[in-house]
Amino acid sequence: MAPDPSRLAINQATVRPQWTLAQAIEGFARQNVRGIAVWRDKLAECGVEEAATMLRDHGMTVTGLCRGGMFPAADAAGLQAALDNNKRAIEEAHAIDARCLVLVAGGLPEGSKDISGARRMVADGLAEILPFARSAGVPLAIEPLHPMYAADRCCVNTIGQANDLCDALGAGVGIAVDVYHLWWDPALEAGIRRAGKERILAFHICDWLVPTTDLLLDRGMMGDGIIDIPRIRGWVEATGYDGFHEVEIFSKDNWWQRDADEVVTVCRERHGTVC
Amino acid sequence: MAPDPSRLAINQATVRPQWTLAQAIEGFARQNVRGIAVWRDKLAECGVEEAATMLRDHGMTVTGLCRGGMFPAADAAGLQAALDNNKRAIEEAHAIDARCLVLVAGGLPEGSKDISGARRMVADGLAEILPFARSAGVPLAIEPLHPMYAADRCCVNTIGQANDLCDALGAGVGIAVDVYHLWWDPALEAGIRRAGKERILAFHICDWLVPTTDLLLDRGMMGDGIIDIPRIRGWVEATGYDGFHEVEIFSKDNWWQRDADEVVTVCRERHGTVC
Description:
2 copies of one chain form a homodimer.
Chain A: E1 8-11, H1 21-30, E2 35-39, H2 40-46, H3 48-57, E3 61-69, H4 76-95, E4 101-104, H5 115-136, E5 140-142, H6 159-169, E6 173-178, H7 179-182, H8 188-199, E7 200-205, H9 229-238, E8 245-247, H10 260-274
Helix pairs in contact in A: 4-5, 6-8, 8-9
């Protein structure tokens, strides 16, 4: 069954080079897309107050603020900077009424080969910021990233790991389920079931292209790749998840080169036909 | 503890553009590297009989023949072709006394988005060729590949999946453990323990570079990346594994551009210092 069009959200990174935050809010709203994920650099550029007002005036739901995390650090000063940065991100997420702060855990600290150690730093960092997030009423969404980012970006690479972290941390922490990162995992269906409605704070869509020519910036538009999005959406919605389907595409040679209004139009079409 | 230098093997793909099989045998032996993994196209070019003689004359152990597998097919004719091809590979592995036939499972059939279905095809294909492999006395080594290859190359992406396949298939099937594909997996240590000495048919080494600029052809020399190779080797050898440490590097812009003798020399040095 085709998804409800009102469930479509777009992560502003999908039109990162084309639009400022103000332009994205207006551009999405113009095509009746009422969910947006916001990036912190774009938010800073716009100003938090101004953005909050614009978002409200355009009836936008902020599906997530991107992003916190990046906990593993080479020393105590690096760790403290990461924690402080996460606290600022929580404040910003609160200010724009984001449904969650998206956390990308971070990879190996400079010079380290200790992936287990990095994972412990992530668990510790999450535990540090969690009380602050709870006070602010901002859910933390751990986003497991594809294993190809384990070294330099995110050492949480499966929904199983994210669920384990949620078990250990308790209320206030959940998961952002992104089909790009997780589609390959044989344990995905079980992991989504285990997460359940409570923990699934966001559902991100795009597609895996064959071939993929860049590890970071060659994500595909839904329908242009090989991910069975309806199947994964079915698993997610079987938990009772009734939130947005957020398109997040980093595509330096294709979608970032196009007219942004066209990108939004194609997102809407594909959401209705292949998601 | 530094590894025994006599345990070093080199996969001939590490010097693919530089050397024919005959040159690789001579080149490796010249530097006293007595283990080699052979590729089928290079073997065909050399001639199986000629290669078998040369390998024997140079005292080389063939750590594996690359490769069989590629089971998922869009139709019955495609499946039959894959099975026939695997049977020929088994005959070749037997002819050169390879310790195993390395199997890369295959990805999604053309036009398919059904990763579970592809995985079933792999299990079925393995079951089909297994009696033939047993008769020939050729162990089949399932090589789990990194999840970034799940779509187009190999839908077996963790050692857990490989162990499950081994459980289902019984004797004659094992696993090729490659640090490049598996280093990120939080369940790797447990998976290696579960596999045990019996199942670990090969141990492949290289390194994960940061950044990695190509999904396929940017593997690093041991020591140039972030994989804790001694730690993983420790897990492997704790099972009782006493086979070779096989260097397998696909590196179009670096190692494939260098003098092959130099590549072998660097493999030997790094094997002694960072593996």
